[in-house]
Design a protein that fits this description.
The complex is a heterodimer. Chain A is built from three helices and no strands. In chain A, helix 1 runs antiparallel to helix 2 and helix 2 runs antiparallel to helix 3. Chain A has one domain (about 5-95): Orthogonal Bundle (Helix Hairpins). Chain A is mostly helical. Chain B is mainly α. Chain B has helices spanning about 5-25, 30-50, 50-75, 90-110, 115-120, 130-140, 145-165. Chain B has two domains: about 1-80, NADH-ubiquinone/plastoquinone oxidoreductase chain 6, subunit NuoJ (Four Helix Bundle (Hemerythrin (Met), subunit A)), CATH 1.20.120.1200; about 130-169. Classes of the chains: A mainly alpha, B mainly alpha.
Chain lengths: ~100, ~170
């Protein structure tokens, strides 16, 4: 007996939901970035399982592109985090509210 | 229960435990280590789904490069315990219900839509593993332009990181 694709999709949905919860509840800007990575991972799992279900490789190519974008985003995002930490001496997002209305 | 099912449930449990630990941990370094656990168990699931190349890239790029960058920044900034402030009211009263609503919606879609039913009864892990040679052929022929575009994206990201991290004179 092999594992049905729907199990993977449910796991992907649960991981994405946990990523959303972490994104909403965490106050540390680095942890918020990590929850974005968690959501990207959940989407990747859905891509791979759909590629498996359809027996096509396009989903795997998309996962490749998602990983590339995640790498670029982490590089720029962490540079921004370092700048913020230097300017504000704090990693708390509540202290970075100039653009809030 | 056969071996793939057992492997799936062990890895799924590890991934969910890691994600919950990411939320509950107070120190950013603990969150980062839990996220690495999630990524490693997802790599095993990719192997189970017959995508060995993606599993290797997951470990090399995600658990290797990206998470090392995160851990590096955490240590560089000496990020200690997270300070808990009062949660924003918007997050408490809108974000949490909307998150649950999203989960319910996805569950409902999986249970009721025809596409979900097809997927649920789908081939499972019956076919052969995805051929890396075929994958590369698709990547470098059909998706050649997006692939080249990602190289420009990476270049711009490097430039952006350099400009941001540069010391003001």
């Amino acid at each position: 007996m092999s594992v049905p694709i729907s199990y993977y999709l449910v796991l992907s949905a649960v991981l994405f939901g946990l990523g959303v919860v972490a994104f909403v509840f965490k106050r540390n800007i680095i942890t918020i970035f990590m929850s974005i990575e968690l959501m990207l991972n959940a989407v990747n799992l859905a891509f791979v399982s759909f590629a498996r279900a359809q027996n096509q490789l396009d989903g795997l190519v998309f996962v490749f592109f998602v990983i590339v974008v995640a790498a670029a985003e982490a590089a720029v995002g962490l540079a921004i985090v370092i700048m913020l930490a230097q300017n504000r001496q704090s990693l708390n997002v509540e202290r970075v509210n100039q653009l809030k209305f | 229960m056969s071996v793939p099912v057992v492997i799936f449930f062990v890895c799924a449990l590890l991934a969910i435990v890691g994600a919950v630990r990411l939320i509950l941990a107070r120190e950013p370094i603990h969150s980062a280590l839990s996220l690495i656990l999630v990524m490693l168990s997802l790599a095993v699931l990719y192997l189970l789904l017959g995508a060995p190349f993606i599993a290797a890239v997951q470990i090399l790029v995600y658990a290797g490069a990206i998470m090392v960058l995160f851990v590096f920044v955490i240590m560089l900034l000496n990020a200690g315990t997270e300070e808990r402030t009062d949660f924003s009211k918007l997050a408490k009263y809108v974000g949490v219900p909307l998150g649950f609503f999203l989960l319910l919606e996805i569950g409902h879609w999986l249970a009721h839509s025809p596409a979900g039913a097809v997927v649920a009864n789908g081939a499972g892990a019956s076919g052969r593993a995805a051929d890396t040679a075929k994958l590369s052929e698709q990547l470098f022929r059909q998706y050649l332009f997006p692939f080249e575009a990602t190289s420009i994206l990476i270049l711009i990201a490097i430039l952006g990181a350099l400009v941001l991290a540069r010391k003001e004179e």
